[in-house]
Specification:
Helix content: 40-55%
Radius of gyration: 24 Å
Strand order of the largest sheet: 1-2
Structural class: mainly alpha
Oligomer: single chain
Strand content: 5-15%
Largest sheet: 2 strands, antiparallel
Order of helices and strands: EHHHE
Distance between the termini: 44 Å
Length: 108
């Protein structure tokens, strides 16, 4: 079991029935990185295979789709690396007794 260190340098005390887990693939940075990388692959493919003379004339010879696609792929990779290097850690504890029992929450 590993605990994170607070900004003051202290290690927080965890309750006895809890442990620390990471969010893993459910980290929002993974979703953002995957989506940006997907868009980047699509744009880079368009820049490589569908760049015509008319497109070059519009952009003064600059292949915008290719370079924006490469930038998005790099951004997506950086987001995934960030999520792996510094994962979000959460404290997981067992539910209190009776927490799974259904309760009527209708208005009184």
């Amino acid at each position: 079991m590993s605990t994170s260190i607070t900004p003051t340098g202290e290690t927080p005390q965890l309750p006895a029935d809890s442990h620390v887990e990471t969010t893993g693939a459910f980290d929002i940075r993974m979703f953002i990185g995957a989506l940006m990388a997907l868009y980047g692959v699509i744009l880079a493919a368009l820049g490589l295979f569908a760049f015509s003379a008319a497109d070059a004339e519009k952009t003064d010879g600059f292949n915008a789709n290719l370079w924006v696609g490469v930038g998005l792929i790099v951004f997506g990779a950086l987001m995934a690396i960030w999520a792996k290097v510094k994962p979000i850690r959460i404290v997981v504890a067992d539910n209190e007794p009776g927490a799974e029992e259904p309760k009527d929450i209708a208005a009184l």
